[in-house]
Amino acid sequence: MFELAILGLLQESPMHGYELRKELTAKLGAIRAAISYGSLYPTLRRLQAAGWITEAAETPATAEEIPALTSRRGRVVYKITAEGKERFAELIAQTGPETYEDAGFGVHFAFFSRTDRATRLRILEGRRRKVEERREGLRDVLSRAAVRLDAYTLELQRHGLDACEREVRWLEELIANERSGRTPSGSTPGTVPDTPGTAQGQSEEHIPPPPGQVQELRPERP
Amino acid sequence: MFELAILGLLQESPMHGYELRKELTAKLGAIRAAISYGSLYPTLRRLQAAGWITEAAETPATAEEIPALTSRRGRVVYKITAEGKERFAELIAQTGPETYEDAGFGVHFAFFSRTDRATRLRILEGRRRKVEERREGLRDVLSRAAVRLDAYTLELQRHGLDACEREVRWLEELIANERSGRTPSGSTPGTVPDTPGTAQGQSEEHIPPPPGQVQELRPERP
DNA sequence: ACCCGATGTATCGGGCCGATACATCGCACC
DNA sequence: GGTGCGATGTATCGGCCCGATACATCGGGT
Fold first, then answer.
1. The Transcription regulator PadR N-terminal domain covers which part of the protein (chains A, B) (predicted)?
2. Long-range CB pairs of A156-161, under 8 A, 24+ apart, other chains included
3. Å from the A80 CA to the C27 C1'
């Protein structure tokens, strides 16, 4: 699941592990607290073995770098490959059951600006369905099992139910916005161009690299 | 983490795996969708190996049972041991870092009716602290990184932030209720050596409902 | 007669996590 | 001038949990 996220971040700019973790944490902060190194490094190795990313030695940057004063140990910089970009496009377009799970949905959503509109709608609606099911389950338990469960457990269910209802409303809004051709809170132009009109499912290759949008992520410290 | 939940449920009544899963799903439905068998059975084996639970053959109940007509295959009924009860008491009272994590907190909360008030407060406050930290992190990202993140990612953060704020408010209420002694005491008869003087909740504010009586879980009799 | 959905037990590979270990750097504090 | 500390940085290990899968029985509907 981090496969997608890592590939997505590396497409913006090459990074080393520590940096990657920080960016990941910033981008997915709403989903999970922080990705653990015990996940990150093995995933990186996996991606590398598959050929989606490559390991680049610490950049000497300008040739006349301070050569040996501070030897700048370690620091493995990872870089996405052409195959990796294809893989990313594939992952971002395909929807499995885990796409609608909490974490999976969050990751997909975080890269919506690189997802075409038809897929965005599919994911949003799938997620809504999922949350609605969950909501119905909670309602059932609350109405049916009030005798069997203690007050604290019921309170927990109620809080969960509230969260579900709220998320459904949020999703409804997002779906309505997608249909009417707006991006959330109206900002950030220059992302994926919308194709208004009919939702034609033509598989038009992979969405090419994000247009302008890519900006320098903290250039290597001098 | 399911160790606590399973021990807690088996303390109410012996059960077999399938039943256990359903009860778990009902009790923890607000936390996670459903516990997988790939977690349940290994956990059961672990608990058994540790001596916290024992495996009881399918009850012949009355001696003159229909002996072999329908052989009543399989059906392993698990039962908590004395050591298991001690273990449960230990687990429910102790608070580690994972106690304040989403899942860990949920499980602890679901068994609050078997937790003494001091521990309840400790957990509630610890959780609040955790969520507040998360909230601050999201605020930071939102205020500081609005330039670097696209509109969808920002929207995700906003939604996460909203959920955090809401949960903090929920926790505040619960804490206030605990302090003022309006414990929604759903304590099962004979389980908690509870602190006396906890009056039944006068309906005020939001901690509501009927103190649930634990009733016999259907000992299946088809 | 036949199939289907619920009930029921169980394993396997894989992903992710927390704990842990190690090493360097800049900086404040004494 | 030393000393310690927090941030930066890479990496592994054991363990929990999950989804997929396999297998078997039961009650009932068609």
1. 6-90
2. A156/B30, A156/B31, A156/B106, A156/B109, A156/B110, A157/B29, A157/B30, A159/B30, A159/B167, A159/B170, A160/B29, A160/B30, A160/B31, A161/A135, A161/B30
3. 36
